[in-house]
Each structure stands twice: as structure tokens, then as C-alpha cells.
């Protein structure tokens, strides 16, 4: 049984090992449509291939003779663009007699000879799952990020599921940040994330999803018929809580008053939440990009209102 | 010597892992969270009657883990931000007092009574967010509860001093420990990253004139404490009236005569909270 979260597409794995038995064992674990293995017997030769076309998983045998396996791992992991590539090391029992500094090695897991096919199977899946979770999480809120969001939306579109996709962002977040600084801004983002997650999760027994695109942009997905109530509840909870993230004086006066670079005094309302909701009913959406394009148009409409508001795309009905 | 006692007592107080509560409210919330369709409002209403459960959710939501320490002072907001799963986790991991529950019942009644009275005082004074003041009233004697759990010998000695020397609990604490529950409150509030308004109300309700940033909160709780004691509802550990600091009324822009209507409202609403019987049901 494959881990269902992974095999929506073929996984590309790479093995660097001079050991043909290991290659044979790994290749035998999955159908090539599920996991396609590229086996390279020498470490150095593989580097360019890894950089050009990073696989979904890199398995490095410590028996490589031309380059230490840990060096391969550290070359990969030291580059921010490749960091998320999971690396699994393969050891002989004697390799484990020495102490490993895992802070330095930055591998994700290891296997020890003699290999068991069952264990290798499960460990590879676990490593892939763990990487897909960790890879894309927003570093602040730990919510799924863009890759997961796009993947989820496209998957729902492909399955012709009926769903509502809501794009949320904060109005006047910038003026809050300007006055209170980034760390107070991060507090508001953490609060917003909790409000959205808990509100969406309070609809029990339905499939839903919350992601953090980045900055003050969030998305959530709920069944179409729940979208409006979800928006109302998210907005109500946000509006109720957000004043408490201001200092008492601004909370009292209900706005931030600041002087811009031209010396003009301006006032900015308290932050509000704008939500634009796109529906995929009757399989009208073909591609993720359509959903976001429609949402961006709606967002303008939601933003015309300085108070928290939501706009539902009713064109589909 | 006194400093040594204070340091070791502080360490004891802050090392508290498991703060128990009384069974009545806990049982009620436990029933509520069993049904995932229970509204957050319904849960908040019940938790707002229990100082320990309220303290637990406020402590959790204000912990740095959630990313906004010291911001949340409402039980309802706490529950929205924690979410159902976490709330249920807090509830199922809470134990009940297996002893001392008789003394504790008086403290619990005093606590909900003070929450009600403080909220009414805040309304009378025309303050914004009166619920916030109620929370301050609810938690104002939490230090006594924590001391009873973490410093049982000293707590007993304080109780004896109250009886034998006819002292108020607060005076007896100072005589026995060298510091009062107001100090314990301050330690806890600081350690748990509670919002500064709650912290100040907890630590200055006996001396509202000392409040630096939130004099209104400290003053409202001070007056609330006075009212609930005047009504002799529950017990703060002794049966004496507390002196009313005139400064507190000045801070709230209230006159002594204004308290009449607050007292009336308190009497009228007391039924709602005194219906909460903190004693366990007879088996």
C-alpha cells in the first residue's frame, strides 16, 4: 500500500551506490509508475544531475568510494534551493560504531545493512512524507505553503470536486507593521492563522484545508455550501480579537494616526479581513491559475470596503 | 532568611505542573467537549466560572508557542484561538482536588462572586470590555489556590494564623510567609505571560493605588472584592471585611453612593453564579 498523500504523481528517486544488490532491492519495492529509480554508481558524477533535476528523494550509500556520503548530503543541504530534498543514508553496521554529528550531516534518515525490504519500503515512504510536510510549511505559522496549496487545488479541480476556495488577506496590515514593527505584525499573522484554522475545523465531518500563501495572504477550502457561513464566522472572530493587538490608545480611538514622509497626518483604520471566494461547481475550473485570477478580481471588490468583508463569486450559478 | 523563603517559595510556586480544580464545573465542561458540535460560546460560559480552568486556557493561549504572548485576556477569545482539540486536551488533563475541597469551595465561590461584582463595577464605571474586568476578578485570588497546592505546610500555617490571631488572610500570609498572594499572583502572571491588565489586577487588587499601567483594572477588582465580602458570599480564607480604598473609587470616577446600584445588581445576579454549586454531588 503506497502512502496515499504521495503517489498522486510519480516520485523520482535517485540512488548513489556501487552496490547492485541495494539497487535491485529498492527497484523491487515499487512499480516504476510509482517510484522511478535512477541509480548512479559514483557520487561525483551525480552532483550535476541532482542540481539540474533534483529528485524527490536521494539515497546515498556510505560505500561510495569517490566521495563520502555525508559530503554529498551536505553539498545538497547547504543550498537553500535543494535543502528540502530528503536524503537517506545507507550504512554498514560498522559505520554506526562511530558517533555521528547529525547537526552537521543533515541527513533525514538512514538504513543499515543487512537491509530488509519491508523496512526499506516503509522508511522511504516515511522520509518522503515527512519531507513533503516539512518542505512547504510556512516558517511562521507552520501552515501548508504555496506548493501544497496549489497541489491541493489542482487535485480538487482534476477530480471535479465541488468546493469553495477562499483567499483572505488583511487590510491595513502594512500601516500596523509600520507603527508597531514586524514582530507585532507576526503576532497578528499567528492570530489570523489560528482564527482561520479553528473556524474552518469547527465544521466537523467535512473535507477542508487551510494554507498560508505568505505574508498576510491565507487560503481556505471548504465545501461550497459552507463557504458563506465560514466567511461570516472567520470575519466575526477576527474583528472581535484584532483590536486587542493594538495598544490601548489606538484601540480606543479605533485607528492608527501617523505622519507620512510628506509630513501629512493620516489615519488608518484597524485591520480588517477581506475574503474573496471562488466556487468550482460543475467542473467550471480547469486550472489552478483560473481560480487565483478570478479571486484577485473579487479581492478588489472586497477591499473597497474598509471593514472586514467577503465577496462570493456567484457567476458560476 | 526571609529572602531565602521567598526564593524557594517562588520556585515551588512556579514549578506547578498540575493545577487541580473542583469537580462541578470540570464535569460540566467535560460533558460539553464530548460533543464536537458544542459551540465555543457555550464552553466559554462554563469555563468563565472556574478560576483554574480559566487560568489554564489563558496561560496556554498566551504562551509563546502560539506566537502572541500577553495579548489575550478574554476566555471566549482564548477558546477561539486554541480551538476545540486543544481545549479538549486541557480539560481531559485537568484533575480535581482530592483533599481540601471544603476550603476550596469557599475560594471558588469568592472567585466567581468577585468576577460578577468586578464586571458590574466596570459597567457602572462605563468601562469598555467589562468581560475583561470579570476575568481579572475571577483570577484575583489564584495565588491562594496555587499556594495551597504547592506550599501545603505554609498554607496550613497561614490558616492557623488567621484563626488563632484573628487576622485577615492577606495579613496572615505576610506574617507567616513574609509576602502575600498578591506577590504570588504577580509571579504567576509574569511566568505565564498573562496580559499586563490581568497581571496588574491580580498583583495590585489589595493596593490599587500602586497600579502603574492599569489602575482601572486593579481598582475595579478591589471594589469587586469589597462587594463580594460585604455580601459574605464564599470565602477568601477569612471572614473579615476588607477596607475599601477610597482611591479606588476615585480612579473609577465612582462615588460611594454609586455602589448602591452595583450592590443591587450583584444581589439580583448572584443567583446565576451561586447556582454553581462547587461541592461534588453526594454519592
Description:
The complex is a heterodimer of chains A (317) and B (283). Chain A is α/β, with parallel strands linked by helices and 317 residues long. Chain A contains eleven helices and twelve strands. Chain A has helices at residues 20-27, 43-52, 69-77, 102-105, 117-136, 146-158, 173-180, 182-201, 227-241, 248-253, 288-303, and strands at 11-16, 35-40, 57-61, 87-91, 109-112, 163-171, 209-214, 217-222, 255-259, 265-269, 272-280, 309-312. In chain A, the strands form three sheets. A five-stranded parallel β-sheet of chain A has the order 2-1-3-4-5, sandwiched between helices. A five-stranded mixed β-sheet of chain A has the order 7-8-6-11-12, sandwiched between helices. In chain A, strands 9-10 form a two-stranded antiparallel sheet. In chain A, α7 crosses α8 and α8 packs antiparallel against α9 (227-241). Chain A starts with 10 loop residues before the first strand and ends in a 5-residue tail after the last strand. By secondary structure, chain B is an all-alpha fold. Chain B is 66% helix and 0% strand. Chain B is built from 15 helices and no strands. The radius of gyration of chain B is 18 Å and the shape is globular. The model of chain B has no long low-confidence stretch (mean pLDDT 91). Chain A binds chain B through residues 140-141, 186-191, 194-195, 197-199, 201-202, 204, 237, 240-241, 244-245, 252, and chain B through 36-37, 40, 66-68, 71-74, 76-77, 80-85, 128.
Explain briefly what this protein structure is:
Chain A is an alpha/beta fold. In chain A, 41% of the residues lie in helices and 22% in strands. Chain A has a five-stranded parallel sheet, sandwiched between helices. In chain A, strands 7-8-6-11-12 form a five-stranded mixed sheet, with helices on both faces.
